[in-house]
Structures are given as C-alpha cells and as structure tokens.
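User: My collaborator sent over this chain with a note saying "see what the structure looks like." That's all I know about it. Can you take a look?
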Amino acid sequence: MSEILESSESQIDFIPKNLPQETQQLLIVDDDPTILNLLAEFLSRLGHQCRTATDGMEAISLLEQSPSTIVITDFLMPRMDGMELILNIKKFWPETDVIAITGYGRDFNYTDVIKAGACDFIQKPFYLDELEAKLNRIIRERGYRALLERLSVRDVLTDLYNRRFLDNKLEEEAQRATRQNYFLFLIILDLDNFKELNDTLGHQAGEHVLQRLAKVLGNSIRRNVDTPFRYGGDEFAVMIPQADTEQVNQIAERIRSNYLNEDIGKTSLSIGVSRFRRTNKELREDIDDFIRKADDSMYAAKKTGGNKVIFHEEIKKGEGS
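Assistant: Without extra context I'll predict from the sequence alone. Here is the result:
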C-alpha cells in the first residue's frame, strides 16, 4: 500500500483541470480506507462522480440504488470478494464496466478476471497514471459502443428512429397495449410533390426539407409519449399510444398544419392513420396488418389530392383494404 501512496501523492497536484473526457459515474470498492479515499480523490479530480464501498455487499446495495457506469474493485474483501462482485455486476448490470485491482496475482490471474467479466486488470503496486490510462480507454470504448448503438437505431439524416427500430417498438407497444387494454395508433405520412422539389432544387435541398419535417414532427407530438420515425425515403411514421381517436386526429392535423406553416414550395403532407387491433392471428401478423392499414390510408389521402388526414375506417370499399 505504501508503494501506491508514494507513487500517487506526488501526482495528484499535477492532474489537468479540464480533461477532454466524458464524466462517468464511478463506484470504487476496497476494504482499505486509505486506498479508497486516495482513488476517490484522484478520480474526482479527473472530473468523475465517485461513490465508495468497503466490500462487494455494500457495492451491490449502492448499485441497486442507482447503477454506475464503471466499477473499480479490489479482490480480497470481507463478505463478498471482487470475483463474486464482478459476476453479479455482469449478471444484473451488464452495461457497467469493471476494472479489477489486486495485489494477489497468485490467487487471481488475468485470464480468470477477464473471463468473469472485467474489462481490465491492475496489479498492486501500480501508478495512478496506469489506472487513468486504462480508465480513459474504457471511456473511449463506451463512447464507441454508444455511437454504434445509436447509429443502429437512428436515421443519420434526420436523427429520428429508423424503420428497424419502429418494427421493434411496435411489437413491444402492441403487447403492452393488449395487456393493459389501451388504444395504439400509427400515423404514416408522405410528402406531396417531393419528387418535383427534389428534381427542381436538387437533393441537398430535398434533404433539408426532410430535416425540417423531422423537426415539425418533434414539435407536433406529445413529448416523451409519442415516437416519430423516418419510415424510408420521404415517408415518416409516428407511434401514438394511450390516446383516443379525437386526440390522434388532433395530433395528425397539427402535424399537417405545422408543416404547411413552414411554407416549403408546393409540398404538403398526405397522412394515414390506423388503430391496432388484436385478433386470433400471430402478433406479427396483426402488426403487419396495422402498418398496412396506415399505409393504405396514406395512399388514399395522396390519391385524393394530398394535404389531408385519412383514418383507415374512412377509406371507401375498394380504395383500401
């Protein structure tokens, strides 16, 4: 322990004040109060939020209160050791990364620790700059994972959720709506005269229009309740749970009128709306039918001149389903 203190106390005064790294919620676990306080001070001065625990049991209790992004843990501790703590973290908080610290390499080797679920391993005595380097690497990797996850569900141009994410969310929400007995609606909308605008002004102008429409959607729906998506091309969708027909109509009309207020050439919106209905079919079949009805309604609006909202129930026989 003295080697850690000797190698670290001289470094603390030289920690840069504004490191270009994202603040993390850290949990430091060690039964030695001197090391615990040293690491907490050091990592706090790097700009991170730190909590401390003296063993694995206390760490689990703190994680249950609120998760941490990264846990830094010693191995030999009373009640619950580091290996058992890592196994619990990987089971119940899989998004949390772990750095393991031990002075007992003969009891726990690097391979065992990594197999248990830790991201990295430090053996005592160590320098604080080694811990900082390993921590920064993990933070970078967390950032890359978050970016890749975002790109997998977001449309790059509009930053709305994409078609893939819509399919997943519809299945989740349809199951919840059936279980809790509330209405679920889907709006599908398409830009009228968009091809003409694109051909006349160019694709860059067309992309700008799509971005403006995405903002209109965000400003026209119930925040943190309804979810907008880019369905594909110049088609967009909005999932609306826990609303009645009148509320959905108001939302759809607000989207249509707010877009018109943007005054973007001759463009307007054709909007179709459908309500999810559970039948004796497989859930996926009911969801596909749900989407098809909203799509049919949107095309019915477009065929009759565009710039209007049509509910699926309003389609005359022969025009839709």
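A starting point for your reply to your collaborator: The domain at 2-152 is CATH 3.40.50.2300 (Rossmann fold).
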